[in-house]
């Protein structure tokens, strides 16, 4: 299977969202019939809000004090702190997927690629169990849907989609580590570690740099 891979890079929140948008527009303009897959990081740390999410709940003083940027995503969903993580994005035509027209099934089809990728490095993921959305939660990783990827019942990867002119952009946050105290200050709600996990807790010997290398090797050799 042909995959165009955009190598891992660290950019600002605005630059990352612009690059995802540009890749989507490029795919539409060129009418590509294969996936474009990208890995990236964020500097400085950044809170991204879903396309339709109200951002009034955020304490801007906390963000300023911790040098945290803010950006709006093209995709829906709820807010995320992009800090000690790896983000993925992929762009492809709806027709590329077996069930591309069905949003839920398309999430699961794409997520299966991620499951296989993490299985190759010894981390067994599965789909999250859909739970009723609790509207008090503004932090994305506290909400579990059937499209999320979990490790032993704890959410590790949260993803979101947007669609344009017959193409899909899906991107998602792969938590390498997280600062519970900082998250609770930003989102003003308790972070339940029985619901959220990260790569560092799953495999403390796997560095973020090594994880990027392993994911890159899997994608480029797929």
UniProtKB/TrEMBL annotation:
Signal peptide residue numbers: none
PROSITE patterns: BPL_LPL_CATALYTIC (PS51733)
Domain BPL/LPL catalytic per the UniProt entry, residue ranges: 31-222
Keywords: Ligase
Classification via InterPro entries: aa-tRNA-synth_II/BPL/LPL, BPL_LPL_catalytic, Octanoyltrans_LipM/LipL
Alphabetized CDD domains for the sequence: LplA
A molecular function (GO) term: ligase activity
Protein name: Lipoate--protein ligase family protein
Organism: Candidatus Scatousia excrementipullorum
């Amino acid at each position: 299977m042909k995959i165009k891979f955009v190598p891992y890079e660290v950019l600002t929140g605005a630059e990352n969202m612009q690059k995802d948008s540009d890749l989507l527009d490029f795919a539409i303009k060129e009418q590509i019939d294969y996936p474009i897959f990208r890995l990236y990081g964020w500097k400085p740390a950044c809170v991204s809000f879903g396309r339709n999410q109200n951002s009034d709940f955020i304490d801007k003083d906390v963000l300023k004090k911790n040098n945290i940027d803010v950006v709006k995503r093209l995709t829906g969903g709820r807010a995320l702190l992009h800090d000690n993580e790896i983000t993925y994005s992929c762009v492809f035509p709806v027709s590329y997927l077996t069930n591309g027209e069905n949003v839920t099934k398309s999430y699961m089809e794409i997520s299966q690629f991620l499951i296989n990728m993490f299985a190759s490095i010894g981390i067994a993921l599965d789909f999250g169990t859909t739970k009723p959305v609790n509207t008090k939660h503004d932090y994305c990783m506290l909400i579990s849907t059937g499209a999320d990827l979990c490790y032993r019942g704890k959410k590790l990867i949260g993803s979101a989609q947007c669609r344009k002119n017959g193409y899909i952009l899906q991107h998602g946050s792969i938590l390498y580590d997280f600062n519970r105290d900082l998250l609770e200050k930003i989102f003003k709600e308790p972070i339940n570690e029985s619901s959220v996990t990260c790569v560092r807790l799953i495999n403390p010997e796997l560095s973020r740099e090594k994880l990027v290398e392993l994911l890159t090797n899997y994608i480029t050799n797929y």
